[in-house]
Design goal:
By secondary structure, the protein is of the alpha+beta class. The protein has seven helices and 15 strands. The protein binds 1,6-di-O-phosphono-beta-D-fructofuranose and magnesium ion (2 copies).
Length: 334
Amino acid sequence: MARNNQTLGEFIIENQKDFPYASGELSRLINSIRLAAKMVNHQVNKAGLVDITGAAGEVNIQGEDQQKLDIIANETFINTLTNREIVCGIASEENDDFITIKGQNNDHRNNYVVLMDPLDGSSNIDVNVSVGTIFSVYRRITPTGTPVTIEDFLQPGNLQVAAGYIIYGTSTMLVYTTGHGVNGFTLNPALGTYYLSHPNMRFPDDGHIYSVNEGNYIHFPKGIKDYIKYCQEEKEDRPYTSRYIGSLVSDIHRNMIKGGIYMYPSSSKSPKGKLRLLYECNPMAFIAEQAGGKASDGFNRIMDIKPTELHERIPFICGSKNMVTKAESFMKNS
Ligand SMILES: O=P(O)(O)OC[C@H]1O[C@](O)(COP(=O)(O)O)[C@@H](O)[C@@H]1O
Ligand SMILES: [Mg+2]
Ligand SMILES: [Mg+2]
């Protein structure tokens, strides 16, 4: 139950009973993410002052130039989760393959796997625009005491036990769900404590903001082009306002508060879109649905899609449910 001025630590303990298998493991996991996020926040806030901006000189499995902060965030989350004996495996945008965490006694006794995008919106790091971290948590399906396998990571989104994001923006917030609604906590930098600032976050059913990289317009499917035209029409409560930050976390966060739709569709250049199903789309879809919104690939519910690869991409439409349904109708009729 949410209380004003409740700290994240208190909220986690008071809501532990909501977790299936309420053994405290998942609470400790969320607490570790809370800690790692503070460390990354500290680095992000220094971007520009110290030499943590720019490319690191490596290319990740996506073919993208890794930014120094991508690597710092990746290592910070992996080390923090590993050292706290709560996960048996981690998958990350910045690692080609999943990491097996044996545990202190090499006995593979932990029960949760974490999939993450350690730094989302990397193209915005050097230009002082908000970026984020995205995480998704599953209970393993292979027997405890055995090494995790790829099957533990390729679970459909509807089996997530927790998901969330951290936004490093005008303030730093941690927003997450364990399947009992969505709550947002703002970091008080002076105290280093997160406080419940956004209890029970809800996507308005309708909105007036659309977020898409219109620079790709000519490459979009007809249905998306028609929906963008619909958003721009001088009719009824339209035209909508176009807002696109280029950081998935920030665009979805804004649209969740104000009402709106975010789209990263397929295109003739990238037939499967750009965003990764496992550690970008599934966690944001879980958050959206828990906040009364909707997430689709244009035709199907994102969280019902059975993943086949660790870094697979998928077209993504997410936001206010009536707006997503409208966009889908344009896709289906095109
Ligand atoms: O520059 P584009 O093609 O519009 O892509 C922007 C999208 O790509 C991303 O930056 C991809 O995430 P990463 O930065 O984690 O690789 C999203 O945050 C964002 O919505
Ligand atoms: Mg990302
Ligand atoms: Mg990233």
